Amino acid sequence: MPESTITMALAGNPNAGKTTLFNDLTGARQHVGNYPGVTVDYKTGSLRHQGKEIVITDLPGTYSMTAYSAEELVARDYLIRERPAVVINIVDASNLERNLYLTCQLLELGIPIVIALNMMDVAKDRGIEIAVEKLARLIETPVVPVVARSGVGVKDLLDAAVALAAEHHAWRPRVISYGEDVDAALAEMSAAIEKRGFLTDSYPPRYTAVKLLENDEQLANLSAATDPNFTRELIERMEKLSEHTQKTLDVYPEAVIADHRYGYIKSIIRQGVITRAYDSSRLYASDKIDKVLTHRLLGPLMMLAILYALYTFTFSWSEYPVAWLEAGIGAISDMVSARLPDGLIKSLVVSGIIEGVGGVFGFVPLIMFMFFGIAILEDSGYLARVAFMMDRVFRIFGLHGSSVMPFIVSGGIAGGCAVPGVMATRTLRSPKERLATLLTVPFMNCGAKVPVLALLIGAFFSEHQARNMFLFTMLAWIMALITAKLLRLTVLRGEPTPFVMELPPYRFPTLRGLLIHTWERTWQYIKKAGTVILAISIVLWALMTFPKLDAASRDGFDRERDAAKVVFTQEIQDEAASEREDISETGQSLRDKLAAIDAREAEAGLEYSVAGRLGRGFEPISRWAGFDWRTNIALLGGVAAKEVIVSTLGTAYSMGDIDPDDSRSLASRLQADPGWNPVTAAAVLVFIMFYAPCFVTVVCIARESSWKWAAFSVCFNTVCAFLLAAAVFQIGAFLG
Ligand code: GDP
Ligand code: MG
Question: What is the pLDDT of residues 164-210, one digit of tens each?
Fold first, then answer.
């Protein structure tokens, strides 16, 4: 590089405006690179200022310099390895305190920095005034106010950065006090590090000691690899301190360090750096609302009330549309079966396609109302509050604040999908917390399970549909959290990682936004019913139809029919002779008899089919949970996709009576079936909620972790679900 080239790096929290500033500075002269070894992009660009060539790198956004995530690792690694002449640290002026946490760590590293105080316009709008010079003096670092979005102050920023680079001074690590105990340990450790010259080429000695105390994995590994004996010495000293702080303060040194950093920042800000121009409480309607909605006690209660209201709304409003749609589908089914001649084609169209796919379509209004309610929660900003409140609960169960969103996306409120839920776990930094989340999100009630729940709740617990839906949702959460805790105590044991979360301000949702969100998700559901579910329904129909009943059995049923007809003819003759009874009544009784024989033949056929044999095969086990062979068929189908459970039950229970006079809904068919009662329904419900994730989810889990964990998920969930279902059934049967 020519003498006059200056290297700079941009560092800051996510959303502080780094990319905006980077584009301001470099315009089109930039290119994207991939940081070696990890999949984090970084951009480099160049510009000329005061006749000097400047090369700037846009580092990934980070909250902290402790390497919890790949992003943070890259940002830190870059600074250590490339040692840029100046770091421009972008700070969001409207959120000063939190943003300065990273600044504090950059200062501790000692690298020359200039603070770009961005979003000055936002701060001003919020009535926040910042005494820039005072801040610069107190924090002993150049501070330049900018508005990256409009380019205000960017020239001054570059001037300051170039001036700092021209000083060419060595790194000057800032020493921040972490309190007596930690300081004493640090002094000892850094003295030893310095004496040994341990890693001093890259890191200031005290910095190495601090990072080790913060349990920084990367640095711990590096130091173990460089000098194992010495590392052991350091770790011994560390453990002594850790024991001490735990005894005296009930926390690990990490927490003490973080507290003191915030203390350092507060002490600066409190000295009149920030003044609020006018009463901020009036401006912060959001904060005021949050005082109530995220209150420690009131908040969770309101959250439950809001969820309950959502289910009430969904079930009461969708009741009529669902009934109309079901009636419509029933009418279509009747019409088609009246037109088509008896035979395979009719069976495929009526039992396979209309009953199968129609069963899934019937729930479109319910799904739509539910998505509408969730869109209101999401668009208003309330969902972020739910995540915020759940975070407290999640920590207890060994999960992370960032786990909440994957749970909600997977159907934590009902009606999501585990596939994007599994993807959403990517935001988790710790691999163990991520796996624990990944393995438990399929317990949520995704959009495909909702129809099954609605069907069974509607058929057997119709008294309090909304309340029961609510209870089953709670059950899903409880089960997921307990499982997560178990995993975190056994196969996924490890330390929790810290979590910072920002609450977006409340917004009034727009009708347009709500409708778009609702429609997008509903359309996904409809599309899936019309494609994937259609295909699976046809395959399952075939499995339930072939091989056909053997000729001997069919002849048997034909003979029964003939016999019934003979009896009928006899009766008619008798009645004609005696001229007593109404002939039409006798006709009706013949029709009933023939229908009963048809139903028995259909059932025998279903039992004889591939699916029927599979279902029967599982019966010796499934009996413990009260599932008969027909339910087994539906549950096996559900492994392909959960929607199929409804459609397979529809097909299995419609094969019995392809009778044009009888288009009862599936719910009433199940109610009438002697094999079903509220106890069986509850056992089936529990099993469906928790057994193996659907095929696509399993593939996703494998892709995001490994096939080993995907297989674990299938087996573990199914065993858990079965034990629970069996418990429900046995206890239910015992209590009558
Ligand atoms: P990054 O995550 O740090 O790269 O942040 P971005 O550059 O993507 O900026 C985040 C958001 O803040 C974008 O919507 C920007 O338009 C906005 N933004 C950035 N700088 C300013 C600013 O000075 N004023 C205002 N009002 N918005 C800004
Ligand atoms: Mg960016």
Answer: 999 888 898 988 888 888 888 898 899 999 998 888 888 889 999 99
Residues whose beta carbon lies within 6 Å of some atom of ligand 1? 12, 14-20, 61, 118-119, 121-122, 147-149
Ligand 1 atom at minimum distance from 21 CA: 7
Those residues of the chain that have pLDDT short of 50 are: 1, 279, 281-283, 658-661
Kind and range of the H or E run holding 8: strand 6-12
Considering every ligand atom, which ligand is closest to the CA of 42? 2
Q: In this predicted structure, what is the pLDDT of residue 545?
A: 86
Query: How many Å lie between the centroid of ligand 1 and the Cα of residue 43?
Result: 17
Q: Which residues of 255-270 are buried (b: 16+ CB within 10 A; e: fewer)?
A: ebbbebbeebbeebbe
So what's the pLDDT on residue 63? 84
Antiparallel, parallel or unpaired: β 143-145 and 113-118: parallel
pLDDT score at 425: 82
**Which residue, by CA, sits nearest to atom 15 of ligand 1?**
17
- Judged by phi (left if over 0) then psi (alpha if -120 to 50, else beta), residue 495 lies in beta
Pocket of ligand 1, candidates 10, 13, 15, 128: which has the most ligand atoms within 8 Å of its Cβ, to mutate? 15
Sign of the CA dihedral 385, 389, 394, 400? positive
Q: What is the pLDDT of residue 154?
A: 93
Q: Tokens 């409207």, residue? A: 94
Structure tokens at 227: 């000098």
- Measure 91 CA to ligand 1 centroid, in angstroms: 11
What gap in Å lies between CA 196 and CA 203, rounded to an integer?
Answer: 13
Taking CA atoms only, the protein residue closest to ligand 1 atom 17 is 17
pTM of the model: 0.58
Sign of CA dihedral 701, 707, 710, 712: negative
Confidence at residue 158, expressed as pLDDT on a 0 to 100 scale: 94
